[in-house]
Amino acid sequence: MAVTETVIHGDVLPFYIFLALLLMIFAGANSFAFNSEVVEYRNFRSSFENMLFVLFGDFGIGNAEKQESSVELAFLIFIFTTFFLSLTMMNIFIAVVS
């Protein structure tokens, strides 16, 4: 009961908004960078879906095709995405626990 009250509490709402904003930014970045070469990132919806998969640890979707397109850009976006999404998720979990 206490966990569900904390998850929907107003103090945690900014973390959720920031997480959604980050997901949209990285989905847009992947869609912009790889839309003409990688099928999984052709439009914003599929890019957003793939960013949700990355958020939960599934990093392999379209990764080989992105590296064939541009190794440096794929690596840079991957590092930024995993770092910022992991950091945001850790802050949400800390806010929920405390």
What does this structure look like?
With 98 residues, the protein is mostly helical. Helix content is 76%, strand content 0%. It has five helices and no strands. Helix 2 crosses helix 3, helix 2 (13-34) packs antiparallel against helix 5 and helix 4 (63-69) crosses helix 5. The longest helix is centred in the last third of the chain and has 27 residues, at 71-97.
SSE inventory with pairings:
Blueprint: H1 2-7, H2 13-34, H3 44-55, H4 63-69, H5 71-97
Helix pairs in contact: 2-3, 2-5, 4-5
Structural class by helix and strand composition: mainly alpha
How far apart the termini lie comes to: 15 Å
Average pLDDT: 84
Low-confidence regions: none
Helical proportion, percent range: over 70%
Per DSSP E runs of 2 or more residues, the count of β-strands stands at: 0
Strand content: under 5%
Integer-rounded radius of gyration: 15 Å
Q: Describe the biggest sheet?
A: none
**Shape, please?**
elongated
Order of helices and strands: HHHHH
In DSSP terms (H or I, runs of 4 or more residues), the helix count works out at 5
